[in-house]
Amino acid sequence: MITLALAQMVYFFCLQAPFTGGRMDCRACPRRVVGFLDLRDDMMTYYFVLAVFVAGFLIIYRTINSPFGQVLKAIRENEPRALSLGYDVDRYKLVAFVLSAALAGLAGATKTLVLGFATLTDVHWLPRERWC
């Protein structure tokens, strides 16, 4: 319930914040030069997004095949047993939630970079098919 309440708070903040454009959406997200990367060039943007994807994929792969990932698998299969083995289940769940939120945020930022705009439906927690 707290997650849903926070999602609604973020949605209404984005609805009223002047830099998001409110109901008119954020249409002014131009590509820029970041360090030595000229993201205005389509091929450079492609390679940047490819690098972000590969880095995200490697992070997920390494997380799953690490001792941390094995504990997450144990929690998924039998949480009381993992708790009885001495693992702090709540802490592992929190770290997994933070990692998934960070990867979702990175995906959203990459989508905005590629498309050049972000709509208000991108920050709402309901699936798009329910909006129609």
- Low-confidence stretches at least 5 residues in length (pLDDT < 50)? none
Radius of gyration: 19 Å
Estimate the global geometry from the Cα principal axes: flat
Strand order of the largest sheet: 1-2
Beta strand %: under 5%
Describe the structure.
- This protein has 132 residues and is mainly α.
- It contains 5 helices and 2 strands; from the N terminus they run αββαααα.
- Strand 1 and strand 2 (37-38) form a beta hairpin.
Q: Tags for this entry?
A:
132 residues, 2 domains, 5 helices, single chain, flat, two-stranded antiparallel ribbon, mainly alpha
Short description:
The protein is mainly alpha-helical and 132 residues long. It is built from five helices and two strands.
Q: Secondary-structure blueprint of this entry?
A:
Blueprint: H1 2-16, E1 33-34, E2 37-38, H2 42-64, H3 67-77, H4 79-84, H5 89-115
Antiparallel strand pairs: 1-2
Helix pairs in contact: 2-5, 3-5
